[in-house]
Specification:
The protein is of the alpha/beta class. The chain has one domain: Thiamin diphosphate (ThDP)-binding fold, Pyr/PP domains (Rossmann fold). It contains twelve helices and nine strands. A nine-stranded mixed sheet has the order 2-1-3-4-6-5-7-8-9, sandwiched between helices. The longest helix is centred in the C-terminal third of the chain and has 21 residues.
Length: 290
């Protein structure tokens, strides 16, 4: 990532991409289906990245990445990493078919979903990744359905490596990306990337909001390597030390998109998170699937 881009101030996605490219190096090719990334990368020749960056239709990102992998293999080029850099709309909704197909084939590339939990580039419409209770322009009273768990959906494809991360934990993201680079086959990393305009918080709070998501248990950091589930240190810390867990209310009330949630709804959400963490404790270090 070069100095200067056209992203919104405080964008978690650009912070995440900066660390991903630090981990992968210059011999990287990016396929970016329609998303905020198609805007903030800028217009050629004054782009914000110094690696090949191919913009693609919403549904075709994984297909284009698969074709890129095939072309490089045909040329005998084994030192180039192909990645797909996609938003949650292009991952959980419009692109899920081609993504699933490339996972079933175990195509040798890394798929990154930067998840700002709505279609932010086109005006903050709800996606399958929008959490329950969140305001969007298409859910003005708050979304009723739960967030789709894409990381576990991808783990169910039995790909070699799946991980979650957050732009507020750059060392975690950097380490997981470095690990993924050395693995052959399909790899999937799902990154929570707070979005100030869409989530309705001050631009200077992007890192803090992401940390609150993890510290409250609203967002878990983990890896599924060869089918074995392992919590990452930041999430294991709140699991093993409940007294250090931030109340989910602190995360919810820090964002305007949840302004419609009642105290009773927040209490129910806290109970759900507590129950989820108890179940996660039983999974840690064990195979997810038979």
């Amino acid at each position: 990532m070069l100095p200067g881009n056209s992203a919104c101030q405080g964008c978690g996605s650009t912070l995440a991409l900066r660390w991903v490219l630090k981990a992968l190096g210059k011999k990287t090719v990016i396929v970016n289906p329609a998303s905020c990334g198609c805007v903030y990368v800028g217009l050629y020749p004054r782009t914000a990245v110094s690696v090949p960056y191919i913009q693609m239709a919403f549904a075709a990102g994984p297909a284009a990445a698969s074709g890129m992998v095939g072309g490089l293999e045909a040329q005998g080029k084994k030192d180039v990493t192909v990645i797909c850099w996609a938003g949650d709309g292009g991952t959980a909704d419009i692109g899920v078919s081609s993504l699933s197909g490339s996972a079933e084939r175990n195509t040798n590339y890394i798929y990154f979903c930067y998840d700002n939990e709505a279609y932010m580039n086109t005006g903050t419409q709800r996606s399958g990744s929008t959490p329950a209770g969140a305001w969007t322009t298409t859910t003005p009273l708050g979304k009723k359905e739960s967030k789709k768990d894409m990381a576990l959906i991808m783990a169910a494809h039995r790909v070699p490596y799946v991980a979650t991360s957050c732009s507020s934990y750059p060392a975690d993201l950097y380490g997981k990306t470095k690990k993924a680079k050395l693995i052959q086959g399909m790899r999937y990393i799902h990154i929570l990337t707070p979005c100030p305009p869409g989530w309705r918080f001050d631009t200077g709070l992007a890192v803090k909001i992401g940390r609150l998501a993890v510290q409250s248990g609203m967002w878990l950091l983990y890896e599924v390597e060869n089918g074995v589930f392992r919590l990452s240190p930041p999430s294991r810390k709140i699991l093993e030390n409940p007294e250090k867990r931030v109340p989910v209310k602190e995360y919810i009330r820090a964002q305007g998109r949840f302004r419609g949630m009642s105290e009773n709804e927040i209490t129910l959400l806290q109970e759900m998170i507590d129950s989820k963490l108890e179940k996660v404790a039983e999974l840690d270090g064990k195979p997810l699937f038979f």
